[in-house]
Amino acid sequence: MKKKILSYLGIFIVAIFPLIAYFMPGTKYFLQVSIDILMYTILALSWDMLVRTGQASFAIPGFYGLGAYVAAIFTKTLGFPIIFSIIIALLISSIVAWLLGYLTLRLKGMYFAIATLAFSLILMTLVIQLKDITHGSEGISTITMFAGNKYMIYYLIFITFVIVIGISEYIQRSKYWYSFTAIRTNEQVAKVMGINTVRQKVVMFVISAMIASLIGTYETFIAGFIEPHSVFNLSIGVMALAMVIFGGIYSTIGPIVGAVILKIIDEILSTTIGLGYMIVYGLIIVITILYLPKGVLGIWQKK
Amino acid sequence: MAEKIILETRGITKYFGGLRAVYNISLKLNEKNILAIIGPNGAGKTTTFNLISGVFPVSSGNIIFEGKDITKTNPAERCHLGIGRTFQIMQPFEDMSVLENITTGALFGRHKYSLKEAKQKSLEIAKRFGLFEYKDFVGSKLPLAYRKKLEIARAYATSPKVMLLDEVMEGLNPAEAREMIETIFSLRDEGISIIMIDHIMFTIKELADWVIVMNYGEKLTEGKYDDVVKSKEVIEAYLGKEETC
What we know:
By secondary structure, chain A is an all-alpha fold. In chain A, 79% of the residues lie in helices and 1% in strands. In chain A, helix 3 runs antiparallel to helix 4 (82-104) and helix 12 packs across helix 13 (253-272).
């Protein structure tokens, strides 16, 4: 019960945050940072949902970049409206994820991670090489959404955030918690217990890919400009993974807590220390993982 | 015989690369019967179970369940048809309590219960197999005899018509073994047909309606317990060996 009140309170604070930011000096900056935090929270959640089936994916940068590029090309080159290009990006990503999933989800552990990493790198290479369509490493500039209104952008992402939390919590409370946990801990037994393990993993992979792709399209329409090295940046995938492990794996609240804390530390360090802040940042992550294997939430649960 | 055959294998064979693990095994399981497969270590008994439950595809041969050829189906489909199995090396799902382990079976087994029904069912099943007091334990922390029970309870939760029991007697003390024998009889009385792999002869003698002896991946002989143990080949291959050690 207490947990429930706390989570609603948390969502409420996120919901009214722009109002608080409105009265603070540097409103735009705070809004931008909180938009970043929310986007990473969603990516971290999408990674966590898939890893509940035991599959640690490095496909997030691939699908993020795919979404970003499809959105940019369809609006800029083909003149589609934003909403249609987002839908097309989601459709293309789901088809690609479905194919990639059937090909790679039979692999486990390191092998799956490497196969998905290769997917992300191959997509980036393709985008750089196919200059006629993508303008190569120069990048593409396109329109922005809501004419760059940060409040509108914030609420669009907030709605997405709430929906993704809904999906994650649905998994935790439904029969899928049982099948995902079973697949993760012993896939062979899970099969004999009647669980269609490949299908369940493929469906989760597709959902997770569509979420990453959606965030990629948002990035395109927030920045109005994308280039391959930033949207296919592997650190997007690494960050999502680090946030999940930092906060607490296999849960909804863990990735959120991890993303919020890490992104705030990231922001504080990069503005105060400046150059070389990644060293301190990295140390914080390493120490947490060493001493809190269950993540930050592990401390709270022990009480 | 008027008895109905529920499960049949016709010459199933399994090669792992060049290694012949199981060769030309044909067996028939009558409804509500207990069939025992015995044989020395490495005789291919567990591999036979893996072929019947679909963990491995067969290299050749056919598996017939309730008159239908199920050779090409996957393990999940066989579970939905009504084949349940336990594992010799007990494999409770980590990160799950005893009750959640059983619930998983009820959720995805033959009846595909809803979450509410499955939770209800799992409580009943935990009580039935004497696991109720351990229901919130993590599976891997259970004492051996209870882990064996959990293996059976979880397989039972999938509502099987046929259960494959892989060495459920192994490592049990006499009192626990006694209880296990009663459990297996109660499953049979409920209408479940059983194939069991075991080494302990007195339990086979008591339980089995029919015994198949395997050695080097092949069927050595089969018959009633009393006839099988008198067979010279069996004494040489199996019982004789055990007497010397």
